Automatic annotation (TrEMBL):
Keyword annotations from UniProtKB, A to Z: ATP-binding, Cytoplasm, Ligase, Nucleotide-binding, tRNA processing
TiaS C-terminal zinc ribbon domain location: 362-401
Lineage: Archaea, Nitrososphaerota, Nitrososphaeria, Nitrososphaerales, Nitrososphaeraceae
Function (record text): ATP-dependent agmatine transferase that catalyzes the formation of 2-agmatinylcytidine (agm2C) at the wobble position (C34) of tRNA(Ile2), converting the codon specificity from AUG to AUA.
Protein name: tRNA(Ile2) 2-agmatinylcytidine synthetase TiaS
Length: 432
């Protein structure tokens, strides 16, 4: 029988309380290899989509499998059934599964995928693109998962990418506390630096490889190559429980893929993601909780408030910004409400140029050298010591050294989103 190339993608199979799209992929691949003789032509792809979508479940991740199969129809039927039966449809999941029989991925699908990283796309738009690209699909629930499915299907990851080894729990262990040796995680992180990332947050003494929900993921280790993430399995042994299995995914995690789009604040759309080049136009101020708010302005005069949240660790930098500073910020656009305006939620802060800063002082008395006091608006100054008055004296502006420097500031690791590029990855991005 003729070998066929089949691209498969599915999304929104999990809920906020359980299941996992990558675990379903693990089970599907396990079956296809054993029962269908299918071959993967790439690692399974774990594609994280726009993290600002409010109706996402947890990580807003979809999976794509690129396969060589003998009987595409049989494989499609199996995967469609697996997605329906393996999804938490009654608990809020709205799965979509998409199939493309082709040796290449159509341009319109790639374009849709690029938009899915940073924009808000409708199911109707997804259906239109699927039809134009010759994609078969099935949906369940309200079918919103079709958007993520097409987003993953069209993502080639032909630029920067990373890998993640995900280890899965046996069903009887799901919901129990995950136990890993903290010291082994610390040692593994140090031994593999800079080629793995976000294993451990030294600032807060927190292990980052284990999730906290009832889903079947035991741990996930992210890095630059399949070999380095695979080395986590022996390095973290012995484990407290027997694993159900593991899979290595190729991914856009840790790449900032969602922030490549340039946003103009004048027309910024709620829930979109991207980066904004702007100047600080208002003095930053702290609000309850330690969060920092400041206003930014672009070259067309359009302004918008920006928020830096305390858990990111960036608030202590943001509070030191001054009006006139030139910055670039990676952002998600939070929708405005009757109580709060639309605002830019800051994900990273790059200080490009610092505006001069001055301390403003009263003038010094020419007679005795003591600093004078103002007599009132436009009334000059008088010296308390010798009573000398000077109606022509002016405030003195003394240059002040800034408390921050130009450069890139990113959140502390525990506050990273799946797509956040860690500091150690800057300069080692892949081009293919």
């Amino acid at each position: 029988m003729h070998v066929q190339t089949l691209h498969v993608a599915f999304d929104d199979t999990d809920s906020r309380t359980g299941r996992c799209t990558t675990h379903l992929a693990f089970k599907v691949v396990e079956h296809l290899k054993k029962e269908e003789g299918a071959k993967l032509v790439d690692y399974p792809l774990l594609i994280r989509l726009n993290p600002n979508i409010p109706w996402k479940t947890r990580g807003n991740g979809a999976v794509c499998l690129r396969l060589q199969v003998q009987d595409a129809g049989r494989v499609i039927d199996h995967i469609r059934q697996a997605v329906e039966e393996g999804s938490a449809i009654g608990s809020g999941a709205n799965p979509g599964v998409a199939f493309l029989q082709s040796d290449s991925v159509p341009a319109e699908l790639q374009k849709f995928s690029a938009l899915a990283m940073c924009d808000v796309l409708s199911r109707q738009m997804a259906e239109k693109v699927a039809k134009a690209a010759g994609v078969q699909y099935s949906t369940f629930g309200n079918g919103q998962g079709l958007v993520g499915s097409l987003g993953a299907l069209g993502c080639l990851l032909d630029g920067d990418h990373t890998y993640e080894l995900i280890a899965y729990r046996k069903p009887e262990n799901c919901g129990l506390p995950r136990v890993v040796d903290k010291e082994r995680v610390i040692k593994f992180s140090a031994d593999t630096y800079p080629n793995t990332f976000n294993n451990y947050d030294r600032n807060h003494g927190r292990v980052l490889i284990t999730p906290h929900g009832a889903d079947p993921v035991f741990f996930g280790v992210r890095g630059e190559s399949p070999e380095v993430v695979a080395s986590a399995l022996p390095a973290l042994q012995p484990l407290e429980e027997e694993l159900d299995g593991w899979t290595i995914f190729r991914s856009n995690q840790g790449t900032n893929m969602h922030l490549q789009n340039e946003i103009r604040v004048a027309g910024a759309k709620a829930y979109t993601a991207g980066h904004v080049k702007c100047r600080v136009s208002g003095k930053p101020y702290a609000i309850e909780g330690g969060h920092v708010i400041f206003t930014v302005e672009q070259d067309d005069g359009a302004e918008m408030p920006a928020a830096v949240y305390e858990p990111t660790g960036l608030a202590k930098v943001a509070i030191k910004l001054e009006a006139g500073d030139l910055i670039e910020i990676g952002v998600g656009v939070r929708k405005g409400t009757t109580k709060h305006p639309k605002i830019l939620n800051v994900e990273y802060l790059s200080v490009l140029e610092l505006a001069p800063a001055f301390d403003v002082l009263n003038p010094v008395c020419k007679m005795c050298g003591k600093r004078m006091k103002s007599e009132g608006r436009n009334k000059g100054y008088q010296c308390d010591r010798c009573k000398h008055r000077d109606v022509n004296a002016k405030k003195i502006f003394v240059p002040r050294e800034r408390e921050i420097k130009t450069g890139l500031y990113i959140p502390t690791p525990k506050a990273h989103r799946h797509l956040t590029k860690p500091l150690q990855r800057y300069g080692i991005e892949k081009s293919s």
